[in-house]
Amino acid sequence: GQARHTASGHALYRGSPDREFSRRLSLMGELRHAIARNELLLYCQPKVDLESQRVCGAEALVRWQHPKHGMLSTGEFIKIAEHAGLITPLTQWVLEAAFRQSYAWVEAGMDLPMSVNLSAHDLRDPRLLDRIKGLFDTWGTAPELIQFELTESALMEEPVGALEILTRLKDLGVELLIDDFGTGYSSLTYLQKIPVDTLKIDQSFVANMLASDDSEIIVRSTIELGHNLGLKIVAEGVETQAVWERLVALGCDTAQGYLISRPIPAGEFPDWERHSCWHAQDPLRKA
Ligand code: C2E
Ligand code: MG
Ligand code: MG
Ligand code: MG
């Protein structure tokens, strides 16, 4: 690969296309074994109710602790998993980890819902629903404790299959969220047709909402649209107090982002929650 040079003279191989390509190719091979080698980790990021300022849930985010490259960003290896046809085993790993963790949280006296991200590929998997049902049975998990997030663009890739699978998931009694809302061009008609409960406004709009009028308008009108359709609204990527306050003023329901916490190892979550200023009080907490 051709090295680029920064102003300070350091070579920047990461930007080189050949180098990046061969890195991806070898990661694809390694990802096949990562599950067996126990290199995947479940992290969770809290969601906080903007009104009560209490933790009201968490999102499961998978991490890959690579022996050589260290902790890998999910955004990158999810794409690799998609190209390598590895979404099904990856989703299965995340689902099993999420149900196991949710059970452990209840044991630890914390019954907060955990949302799991699904990919477009999962919407084409005819066995997904039975596997999810199987996990609810195995762990005796209450349907309120597991939720599913699907990106707006995944829904648009597979609108008919999505409607079918979301309807059957909804029959299990779980909450469904549309992720990265505002980036996927769904129509009002479609939104009214699918059984979703919550819209998550994409973090790009939230992060820019104080600097860009366009972003602010998108955030504000998504909150209005969602509320008019009877949906709850989560803002993702909340990094500053100023953004938090603007979201409160706009009537947004829930916030998620670095202002509250970065994603943390799922096993440490109850401890973090107990000691944080956002901690959920009774009657949510059992112990
Ligand atoms: P997402 O579901 O929209 O998750 C939010 C992403 O934004 C996470 O990145 C999270 O760490 C990051 N984030 C949270 N708060 C902030 C903030 O305040 N500022 C900034 N700059 N970023 C923030 P992550 O974990 O790298 O995940 C990236 C994407 O990969 C996720 O986007 C999701 O679409 C996908 N993903 C993650 N875990 C899974 C999984 O288990 N299964 C599937 N299918 N996809 C997953
Ligand atoms: Mg998500
Ligand atoms: Mg998102
Ligand atoms: Mg996102």
TrEMBL record:
Location of the EAL domain: 24-277
Domain of life the protein comes from: Bacteria
Official protein name in the record: EAL domain-containing protein
